[in-house]
């Protein structure tokens, strides 16, 4: 398997030296090393000895970061698969390992409000340019009547292609309403959560 190295150069002469050698060996360079910023390079097993010897002889500092990149990637795949299975088997309704449509999220918010009416309220804050509802959740054990409780506002998808923010917001809702393991977060804080701040942009992307 391939190993990943960090390479630290001290001068522009070393930059050229390392760059030319990496090209000669036809290595997979993730980022070029420059003074003050280390480089990252993948080196196959049968080239590691010649690569390390060259760096030592040239006085270039290096560090072996990952012994076997393939094994590390396979382990990460296993962890992601396990997390996805746990997510899909829970009571979350919407899994956290995929990007859900605007319509799915809207239906989910309505479902939560019906099932947890003492904690969750759906509010339509307005309409988008194309007429889609911009809805947010009010999550509170005191219906926002306790002035001593701080209010935390959370939103996602203001920038329509930042899709990764939606699963994070849905997970926060899940932990505050369905799978409550930190009761202080819901008992001592009121929450306003807007999952899709830019519905038109989200639908079109």
From TrEMBL:
Mention any one GO cellular component term assigned to this protein in its UniProt record.
extracellular space
Q: Which InterPro entries match?
A: M14A-like_propep, M14A_act_pep, Peptidase_M14
**Which GO terms of the molecular function aspect are on file?**
metallocarboxypeptidase activity; zinc ion binding
GO biological process annotations for this chain's record?
proteolysis
Which cofactors, if any, are listed as required?
Answer: Zn(2+)
**PROSITE patterns recorded:** PEPTIDASE_M14
Keyword tags: Carboxypeptidase, Disulfide bond, Hydrolase, Metal-binding, Metalloprotease, Protease, Signal, Virulence, Zinc, Zymogen
Q: Can you give the residue ranges of the Peptidase M14 domain? A: 98-205
Q: Name one Pfam family in it.
A: Propep_M14
Query: Which domain of life does this protein belong to?
Result: Eukaryota
Q: Which family does it belong to?
A: Belongs to the peptidase M14 family.
This molecule's function is given as: Extracellular metalloprotease that contributes to pathogenicity.
Protein's name according to its UniProt entry: Carboxypeptidase A
Source organism of this protein record: Helicoverpa armigera
User: Species lineage, top-down?
Assistant: Eukaryota, Metazoa, Ecdysozoa, Arthropoda, Hexapoda
């Amino acid at each position: 398997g391939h190993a990943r190295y960090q390479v630290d150069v001290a001068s522009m002469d070393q930059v050229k030296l390392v760059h030319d050698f990496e090209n000669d060996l036809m290595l997979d360079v993730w980022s070029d090393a420059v003074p003050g910023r280390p480089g990252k390079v993948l080196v196959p097993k049968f080239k590691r000895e010649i690569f390390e010897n060259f760096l030592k002889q040239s006085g270039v500092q290096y560090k072996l970061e990952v012994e076997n990149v393939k094994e590390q990637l396979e382990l990460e795949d296993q962890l992601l698969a396990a997390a996805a299975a746990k997510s899909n088997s829970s009571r979350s309704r919407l899994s956290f390992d995929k990007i859900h449509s605007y319509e799915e999220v809207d239906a989910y918010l309505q479902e939560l409000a019906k099932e947890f009416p003492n904690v969750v309220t759906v509010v339509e804050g307005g309409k988008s340019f194309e007429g889609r509802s911009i809805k947010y959740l009010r999550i509170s054990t005191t219906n926002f009547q306790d002035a001593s409780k701080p209010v935390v506002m959370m939103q996602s998808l203001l920038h329509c292609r930042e899709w990764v923010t939606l699963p994070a917001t849905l997970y926060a809702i899940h932990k505050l309403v369905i799978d409550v393991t930190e009761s202080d977060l819901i008992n001592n804080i009121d929450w306003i959560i807007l999952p899709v701040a830019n519905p038109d942009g989200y639908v079109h992307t």
